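Consider the tokenized backbone below.
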């Protein structure tokens, strides 16, 4: 599913006339190191995104944005847990996007409407006393999806996550 999404993103960049289409690279998933100085990779990013202008300005070789992808389904508490623990929490603890203010997640909806899936994810968060982190519609009618803000586990600014739920 992730390879199909990545291919579609690349195709959209080449076919559409987005102003940033020549300055964005949608890279294949790759092993990553969550902390500087690590010898061995400790994770794998699903869809790393690079911006050539950022690279030219800063020389930063790590992804400039990370899109983490997870399977989700209405009524499946196990997948909701995985979305949080293996997705959201990787941004919270700095494994992904440690130096970024924003991150991105995609839920591949296997069953049910996206709103019901988000309700299940929010139930999981509520059950862990994490009500400040609930996924909510951003309120902007031009944006489809949800957003959530999460306090980091070390003294860094919170991270804002953008969530998209895609039917498969």
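A designed sequence for it:
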């Amino acid at each position: 599913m992730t390879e199909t999404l990545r291919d579609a993103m690349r195709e959209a960049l080449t076919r559409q006339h987005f102003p940033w289409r020549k300055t964005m690279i949608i890279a294949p998933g790759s092993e990553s190191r969550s902390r500087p100085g690590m010898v061995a990779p400790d994770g794998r990013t699903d869809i790393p995104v690079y911006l050539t202008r950022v690279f030219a300005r800063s020389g930063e070789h790590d992804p400039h944005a990370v899109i983490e992808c997870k399977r989700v389904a209405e009524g499946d508490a196990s997948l909701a847990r995985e979305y949080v623990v293996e997705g959201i929490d990787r941004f919270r603890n700095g494994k992904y996007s440690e130096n970024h203010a924003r991150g991105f997640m995609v839920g591949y909806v296997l069953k049910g409407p996206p709103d019901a899936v988000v309700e299940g994810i929010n139930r999981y968060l509520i059950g862990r006393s994490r009500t400040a982190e609930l996924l909510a519609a951003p309120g902007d009618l031009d944006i489809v999806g949800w957003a959530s803000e999460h306090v980091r586990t070390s003294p860094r600014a919170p991270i804002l996550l953008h969530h998209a739920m895609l039917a498969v």
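The chain has a mean pLDDT of 85.
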